[in-house]
Amino acid sequence: MATVLKAAVREDLRGSRLTKIRQQGNIPAVVYGKKFESKAVAVNEIDFIKTMRVEGKTGVFKMDIDGTQTDVMIYDIQFDTLKNEVIHVDFYAADMKVEMDADVPVALVGESKGVKEGGVLQQAVYELSVRALPRELPDQIEVNVEELDVNDALLVKDLKAGDNFTINNDEDEVVVSVTPPDEEPEEDLTEGDEEPELVDADAEDSEESEEESNQ
Q1: Domains of the chain, each with CATH number or no CATH
Q2: pLDDT of residue 185
Q3: What is the pTM of this model?
Q4: What CA–CA distance (Å, rounded) separates 26 from 28?
């Protein structure tokens, strides 16, 4: 069964109205696209979270805007980390017959040889720009790191694009690498690096006084 997210058009765009929308358990949002007139809408927060869990960021689903259904995908989410809630969403009205660019999450798979030997895994890229038809956009791009040894790296050109999508990033961009473990050398005292001898301040003062009395 296809996912359908209901939305209502927002006529009142004042800031005070946005606060009321959130208090009612809804999220202010906007829908736009190349062949779609931009519309300010509101969606139910619980329904949106359910849809996002099922479809992911790159999934295409139906949005019912006051009775009219449109193919959309989640384009951007504004999140309030202090309140732990979504405060605004951008939806993109997709043309299902035209390729588009989207940012797709990178998922690392496995444990590398280098990490087992004490190396440190460094992920440089967390999302890759991908071009495909809306229905062909992958949910994520898996990168297997099991064969990575210390001082090894995987570049964009080392990744395998799917049959239905291409990766837009520079082919020489580093996606993930394994660096040597951080080693701090121990401090050894050698000849010439002896600790300075501490002088008793009271003894030094008494010696100076004795010298002055003998003069």
Answers
A1: 4-95 (2.40.240.10), 101-179 (2.170.120.20)
A2: 47
A3: 0.70
A4: 7
